[in-house]
Amino acid sequence: MVEETRAKLIAAARRAFATKGYAAASMDELTAEAGLTRGALYHNFGDKKGLLQAVIGQIDAEMLARQHAVQARAPTRWQGLLDEGVAYIEMSLDPEIQRIVHLDGPAVLGDPSRWPNQTACLRATTDTVQALIDEGVVQPVDAEAAARLLNGAALNAALWIAAAEDPAAVMVRAVDAFLRLAAGLLRAEDPGTGALMSLPRS
């Protein structure tokens, strides 16, 4: 019963937040739509902010599943890393993700880079970068620093797209820049031998 109640409230809130926005969404209306009371909302989520966190948590899980699917189809670990980042950026064109995750979420919950899901993504990206360093694909840089910069670039690109007047046009520019920035991590190829070599570090 508890899980069913939570699921009903999250579903109703997700529809309300996507169509009306967080500020305009009425707690009385969404609880009535779910066939529940405001008391059930407060008992399960504490308040409206807690409900938004739960909705974003659900959407984040779906986004992560989509990213993992994209990564799994990539022919190499490096391409998978790039494809995962691009997929995250491209998802910011989804109206629901735009409004709930990239516009209302930061306004209500604060810096997205500090959200629990971003912490989990950072660990996964760090592990991938470290594996690429060990394989000799990526330069010997600090894996966590590189992961933070890659994830930060994708996140800020998504926030930029969501707030843009022409999101589709901005996305093309953002993806191009993201890929060029990421390419800077690769080891250079010796033009004489075709072998990979480390770029000089300052």
UniProtKB/TrEMBL annotation:
<dbReference type="GO" id="GO:0003700">
    <property type="term" value="F:DNA-binding transcription factor activity"/>
</dbReference>
<protein>
    <recommendedName>
        <fullName>HTH tetR-type domain-containing protein</fullName>
    </recommendedName>
</protein>
<dbReference type="GO" id="GO:0000976">
    <property type="term" value="F:transcription cis-regulatory region binding"/>
</dbReference>
<keyword id="KW-0238">DNA-binding</keyword>
<dbReference type="InterPro" id="IPR001647">
    <property type="entry name" value="HTH_TetR"/>
</dbReference>
<dbReference type="Pfam" id="PF00440">
    <property type="entry name" value="TetR_N"/>
</dbReference>
<feature type="DNA-binding region" description="H-T-H motif">
    <location>
        <begin position="26"/>
        <end position="45"/>
    </location>
</feature>
<dbReference type="InterPro" id="IPR050109">
    <property type="entry name" value="HTH-type_TetR-like_transc_reg"/>
</dbReference>
<feature type="domain" description="HTH tetR-type">
    <location>
        <begin position="3"/>
        <end position="63"/>
    </location>
</feature>
<dbReference type="Pfam" id="PF21351">
    <property type="entry name" value="TetR_C_41"/>
</dbReference>
<dbReference type="InterPro" id="IPR009057">
    <property type="entry name" value="Homeodomain-like_sf"/>
</dbReference>
<dbReference type="InterPro" id="IPR049484">
    <property type="entry name" value="Rv0078-like_C"/>
</dbReference>
